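REQUEST ID: PR-0412
SUBMITTED BY: lab tech R.K.
PRIORITY: routine
TASK: structure prediction, single protein chain
INPUT:
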Amino acid sequence: MSETPATQPPIKQPPRAVRALKAMKDRRMVAMTLLAFAAGLPMGATLGLLNAWLTEVGITPATIGVLSLVTLGYAFKYLWAPLFQDPRPFPFLERLGARRSWLLVLQIALAALLALFAFSDPTQNMALVAFGAFLITLLSPTHDLLLDAWRIEVARSDVDKDMMSALYQLGYKSAGFVTGFFALLIAEHAGWVIVFLMVAGFMLLSVGGTLLAPEPESSRVRSETRETFYKSLPQKVTLPAIMIIGIGWLIAFGMIMVFVIQAFSPEGASGSAFVRNEGPWIVAFTVVLPALVSAFLIFRKQAHPQTVAIQAGPETKFQALQRILFRSIFDPMMDLIFRLRWGALLVLLLALTYRFTDAVWGSFAYPFYLGENFGALGHSLADVAIASKLFGVIATILGSLMGAVLIGVIGRMPVFFLGGVVAAVTNLLYADLAAGAVAVDSFLAFTRLDAPLIALADWGSTLSASTTEADHGQRMARLMVTIFAENIAGGLALVAITAYLTSVVNPRFAAVQYALLASLTMLIGTLGRPWLGEMIEKHGFYHVFIITFWLGGVAVVLSIIEWVRQARLPEDDEEQASA
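STATUS: complete
OUTPUT:
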């Protein structure tokens, strides 16, 4: 009897930390940090600095809430994501490649638009400011799409993916320091013109990341096949489906544009009436209707995915347009429903509701911190720079690290549930601040944190050009501990929703499908801002924070249902669903 050859012991890999440190020597990692920094600047400028500037010059929360609708570009970026799934290089920049050429053009355009704010006056020409913000929030999500595609395509291993994801957060949060802590201090001493020119200058410097980045090999070699549901359906079915969704989207965009035009007219428009009357229809036309039509095509018309050649056979221009529109509109949604069945409904509802409190609150943070009315706190720009853009950013990073560790220890769904709970509960801390901070003061006294935080606040007051009140230290201690707690919760929730959405995305539709789900996380919050702005002016910040706490409970309930659904899945089905 022959002897069985001894199996060779597996080659021992270096520890993961060692491999990660070696990966840091690659120019892709430096480029990733610079490109992520570029991605964070426009968001910080339009959702942060712009609102602080408008508050400083006396623009009301209701108007700021209306203006925040221009950020719908982040909520609808999935509509044009298919255009950049496999793009051609930008004209005259072919040597850079498809990804890098578009990144370069977008960075230069964004720098020019950010500089436009420096030469604008919202008290005299709000329309120009709104138009500039609108263009930024169209180009910035497009930049994000291309950066996500580049990051995924250029990674060579799991260690690369992990490191680049971590560096993305580092670069993005670094941009938060620039558009927050440093920018607010500069605004306090040098004015807003210098601030926006500085941000535009940083945007131009980030072009270095694009020039340093290598072009992904996958963008040089174009795939010859793709998976689609289009071939399994006759034209007499696909054409009406495309027309139904197209008409629904046109109606939804028409509603939004009419409201924005009316809101900035002398007669004005009611934000709460818009959300109450048109808001549900907008969500129905852009999300619910495509989901229903996709489900109809799968369950009634027996649509199923087929792998086909990208280069289609002989077809007319109309047939080619129909094929492209179907693949862009229906394939990502139909894939979700085909794989997850009724669970796709939970995925869509969680995407819509999980980040509601975070998304809707962003536009009113500065009015609450800086304002004098409706229960606002009346802090200076230097106060907010220290509490929100120094303490807050550090807390967000810590919350993100905590979320990543907890996912590895207790699993994705328990952390997903926990993130929803803490994101909702921290709204009660802000409600307490608006009502006089009785609970927060009690916590500070019990933990003895009041003394060191007051000492830090006294140091921070030396950075401000304004006179400080006698109770400035105590007020700052309240603000710092509240913002720290809220940002810890926000960082944890952000990691949780990112991990959850990534788990349900099909890699074959990664760019478009993730863009769809990530866009939905911003939709309800963005549409709710005009209504919330009016609620603040009618009832004050306290009541609004109580409302957002209860609305956050919707995501908590849905996360429990999804946790139970996934727990009941057979192991093989669960792995296939998250493949």
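NOTES: The two ends are 44 Å apart (CA to CA).
REVIEWED BY: pending
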